[in-house]
Fold this protein.
Amino acid sequence: MRTLVYKYGINPKKAPTHNLELLHESARKAYAYRRRLVEIENEQIEALKKAQRRHCGDIDALAQEHEKLDAEIDELRAEAKRERARVRKRADQPAIKRAIAEKVARAKDIRAELRSLRGELRERLKPLDELLKQRIEALLIKWGKRSPPDRGNARRIVVQELLDAAEVDAYWLELQKIRMDSNTAARKARAESGLSAGTYVAVEAAVQKAVKSSRGQTIRNKFVRKVSIGVQVGASGSGLVLPEFPADTWDTRRGKDKAYGEFRVRIAGKEWFAASALFHRPLPEGARVTWAYVVITTEFLRPRYELHLTINVPDCEDKLQGKRLDAVAVDLGWRVIDGRIRVAYWYGCDGSRGEVSLSSKLVNELGKARDVAGIADRHFDVAKRELLELRDKLSPEWQAELNVQSLRMLRSHSRLAQLVNRLVSEFIGESTMLDALWSEWVEYRLQRGEERWCTPEEGKRIVAHLLSLTGIQASVFWLYLWRRQDHHLLVWSSRAMARFYNRRRQIYREAAKFLAGRYETIVVESRSAEDDRPMDLSKFAKRAKPECEETVAEDANRRLRTIVAPSELRLAIKQAAPGRIGKRPASYTTSTCHACGKVCSWDQSRYLMHTCEHCGAIWDQDENAARNLLSGFLQEPKAAE
């Protein structure tokens, strides 16, 4: 039995929906509930730390010393950054490097001591955890019940008995009391949230996603709120109603591959949400839906809706078993070749070869999206300067709120937009009047063949002549123009990036499906002969420390990695061929000649093709690495995952 998740898009504008407001109300309640849970968790963490400090003095002293060292290291690295900014390059700073190295070494020793002390503490408390577990099991056997709520009730009763008896370790008792209080607070928060008892909610709120501008700066204003409202679907299908389609709905030979259909999901007690979804593929034969969710993802105040179905699919007979070829090796490595980016190269046991690449057109689309984000970034700086100039003309209350230092450090577009909205409502007035002014402005600019955006000086001059707004009102209206333009640019950039990421995922999935259908085993790189975990790609994402040098090639390699996302390709391969993944150590696969087996030495980052100095063979280094992975796997086969 396999568990899969099928996702279908919902477009409320395509067809009318039922109980859309109730869905949004449930999402708001879920968000408030999630925030309360985060507060409870933070309170629990603080309480656990205080308990540890009271009962474990050695651990507390070492932890405080480690915090102090971290602060000193951060200050030294900040000093290195300031010096680098002053001379506009990475200057050699031996004194700072030496001081940082000493403190890093001491911090490493402290972490080792802390691990040792905490391990001893866990061993000391282990018998008490076993005692608690045994008493809970005995109570459940006595009741003849084993549901999660019954287990929680049994745990509370046993812990309370131990607290009353006070016959065990005081530190362990305090830990149990803190956890029990947190669980009680979480249950109370759920009861007060207003969510229906049978409704499941999952929230990923205020997730900050970095939008890179053309100048390499991070615009920290794209906040994504993702709320899932779901229900467990019974064996009889209660809680979910899916549409029925004709048998030839997904007959690709006749050009049919999708269909709209109306579904219904119970979201609050006996209330149902109904909408039309685009079903681009049918559920597998014999699948049973276990959970159904309506997911609301909000980006830049614009919601996007999806239907997620969690299904159980019975294991079926592999129709290609025994018909596939033996193995294929995939070498992950990104490089720019003739404008396109090669992400991986594969070589099969039948001599077939190929690459997985992102076209130059696709990469250019991402570059354009980042350029637009860069334009929004520059406009944001201009708007901040205009607001700082406007601050001196405002009332003392506004001046107190618009702190100069805070405004200069502000990096959130959404926060600045909120301030602009408040200024507009106070100094210009109702939205109807604002819409009329906006329409007049747009008509004037279009008649002259000019963009809606302009500099503050030009904008205030035109506004004074066209709309008879002067002084504070002219400045506020220009800030309103900035807010409209900024929202447009960021939404466009966000959607363009989403199109790129979706297309990239599709390319990787198609490549993985092709390899999984043609070959029995797919060989990928592992860390070493002793460690068969996938090759660690995180080292390519790490920036050099402020006290260390970073070459241009390392910086470009890190930037390329964010575009190609090789781990996403590796995940697609693993999902396409479950249980059929072979692994071989990645060391020396690129530099070892597949023809003679001897190690070559050359500038691998500069030259793709290489002529072996030992045997004269000419090969592509990525193909060479894939050949070595395949031959090593065939000579010393390992059990697949």
